[in-house]
Amino acid sequence: MKKLIIALMMGAVSNLALAGGVEDDPVLTKLIVDKLEYRNGEDSDHMLLIDADAWIGRDLHKLWLKTEVERVEAATEEAEVQLLYSRAISPFWDAQIGWRHDARPRPNRDWLALGVKGTAPYLIEMDAALFYGESGQLAARLDAEYEYMITQRLVLIPEIEMNFHSKNDEATGTGSGLSNIALGIRLGYEIKREFAPYLGINWAKKFGDTADFAEEEGESSDDVQFVAGVRFWF
After folding, report:
1. Integer angstrom CA distances of residue 165 from 5, 54, 138, 162
2. Contact at 8 Å (CB) between 99 and 83?
């Protein structure tokens, strides 16, 4: 599977290099730190979360780097990175293919990633992906968020994330079926459009065997967290 992923990414780089090449389609870059936040809950004291994306490319072809890291009590509990080739398939949607690597929890896992990212009706930002991993493991993830402007600077952001798996992976504490859901709502103040500190609440729940694995390790399967952080892009 790793050879297939490498071949796909090499083809993506070739497409990016050959695409465009004229003055009205320059190579652009962007860094988006969607969450840089501190969380405090009954069962997740002193958690730091970083959720960031970066891309480089032209109008139709881009390379994306996505990363998410969770640290609890100065120890990294979850760490994921994705390297994706992205191709615009409509004015509001991109199709993406590439590689996902889970560095934490141990043992690490590698996946082939296929997904779509864009804006659904009512300006809902969507990121949906399928992952094919080792031993035929399949996973699916859906992220959705909406930005509601209360005033010119005050913004309310509800968000949901769901993860599904086809098989149990006891080594990483992942169960089959609906593994977990996270619901959050954040109230941000845009000091400028590119920079907004925020406060919010996040509810996270594990289901099925994922919840059982967590409880066997002495962890809670249900937690409410108060969050404070900042989002920015440039």
Report:
1. 21, 27, 6, 10
2. yes
